[in-house]
Design a protein that fits this description.
122 residues; mainly alpha; 2 strands
Length: 122
């Protein structure tokens, strides 16, 4: 199972205690892509004035920095592997090299599957 929402990062200890065989992967995204995604998905960025868009982008960039620091702490403190969203998109098989998957699981993953994940304008 994969779960990538930021609040989950704060619950890694309790989550790990619930499962015998689990591993965690830190997932991170480039700041420009992340802030643009949130701006248009959650704040209707196209309808904001230039000044309001700039203010919202500053808030989102600050939040990205805060999350990034938390992800870095997890990676360093727990030896958690890190895979960026961009690296995963460029080479989905990269996930197999960083996760410790049970025997047979890697072979069942279709690395050629195509999905569309973004539907907002550039």
């Amino acid at each position: 199972m994969f779960e990538k929402s930021p609040p989950t990062l704060a619950r890694l200890g309790p989550l790990a205690a619930q499962f015998r065989d689990c591993s965690f992967l830190a997932n991170h995204r480039a700041p420009y892509a992340n802030t643009a995604s949130i701006l248009y998905r959650m704040y209707d960025g196209a309808s904001l004035s230039g000044a309001k868009r700039a203010d919202r982008l500053q808030q989102l960039a600050d939040y990205w920095l805060l999350r990034s620091a938390g992800i870095r702490r997890l990676v360093e403190a727990q030896g958690m592997p890190l895979l960026t969203y961009e690296a995963f998109c460029a080479d989905p098989a990269a996930i197999l090299s960083v996760l410790q998957l049970p025997t047979g699981v890697a072979e069942s993953i279709d690395l050629t599957a195509q999905v569309q994940v973004k539907d907002y304008p550039l």
